Amino acid sequence: MELHNVCLIVMIVQCLMVFELVRPDCGCNKLKRQTEGQVQPTEQILYPSGEPVEQEEKPERLLDLVEHSKQFEQMSLIPGGEYIIGTNEPIFAKDREAPARPVTIGAFYLDQYEVSNGQFQEFVTQTGYTTEAETFGDSFVFQGLLTEEVRKQYEDFRVAAALWWYKVKGASWRYPEGDKSRDISKRMDHPVVHVSWNDAVAYCKWKRKRLPTEAEWEAACRGGRKQKLFPWGNKLQPKDQHMMNIWQGTFPDNNLAEDGCEATCPVTAFRQNPYELYNIVGNVWEWTADLWDAQDATAERKPGVDPPNRVKKGGSYLCHESYCYRYRCAARSQNTEDSSAGNLGFRCAADVN
């Protein structure tokens, strides 16, 4: 009898392990850009003058105050202190969501909105910057945004582990679907997508800002609340109200768009916590400054061939509880620094001093 019980316990444990391994996933963390032999684009000059900001002449005090005010426009001040990040009830254990742990951060500013197409266009216009997706000539697009004709054309260019992702020639921040007849002219207030971590860092530097750390991002996401699932609390739809842009329906073929969004939505669409942050979860994934593996900070890597992974947070319009329950504050995922996709964007942070 005891042997039977032991065997039963072993079988249960094995089943649980298999369940974790095959847990449904949207596959956007499989969108790796680099293959052996590819050369990563070289660093570009980020300022129109070609000179580092530190070498510019120091402005007069009044102008300094004006510039300071403009820099922090549409940013929220996130108070410093001790916060609890992570969770003791992880949904994706392999993502290292656990454990819940205290972190101490200093006060900082965070953009209230994700960086929009309009803002990124201004950056490109003033600097001549070229994104990595434009340099490589392609990026990853979700199947629901492609015509049947395009799907057939790129059938052999799908991601093996996530067949709803297509590597489409010409897809970039300017043409999110890779279709020159569908540009961003009517989506200037939507978040910029198809931007790599390197592209996001370049924009932040131009704005004299930076990407938030994962701890800063999560502390801001929680809005002063402790160990809640979402920025506003634990209920997905308080008072039956949609609070974010995520998937409704059966993924990946039936998008009900009950939240009013078939893909990305305007960056001002969903206010989500007392810090006046919009779309901090849902809409598009957001890059953070953190490496996925801390040892990559000192690891020897082959330039242009083996870029490290960076942490992204917040989930996207493709997330659903049954498939990619990563629009929780504690959830996290990763992509390589040069990866880009139609559901990946960012927002900027800035130091108080």
Automatic annotation (TrEMBL):
Family that this chain belongs to: Belongs to the sulfatase-modifying factor family.
Keyword Signal in annotation: yes
Pfam families: FGE-sulfatase (PF03781)
Native source organism of the sequence: Anopheles atroparvus (European mosquito)
Keywords: Signal
Domain Sulfatase-modifying factor enzyme-like: 73-349
GO cellular component term of the entry, any: endoplasmic reticulum
GO molecular-function term, one example from the UniProt record: formylglycine-generating oxidase activity
Gene3D superfamilies assigned to the protein according to its UniProt record, in alphabetical order: paralog of FGE (formylglycine-generating enzyme)
InterPro entries the UniProt entry points to: CTDL_fold (IPR016187), Sulfatase_Mod_Factor_Kinase (IPR051043), SUMF_dom (IPR005532), SUMF_sf (IPR042095)
Entry keyword annotation includes Thylakoid: no
Protein name stated in the entry: Sulfatase-modifying factor enzyme-like domain-containing protein
Annotated signal sequence range: 1-24
Species classification: Eukaryota, Metazoa, Ecdysozoa, Arthropoda, Hexapoda
SUPFAM superfamilies the UniProt entry points to: C-type lectin-like
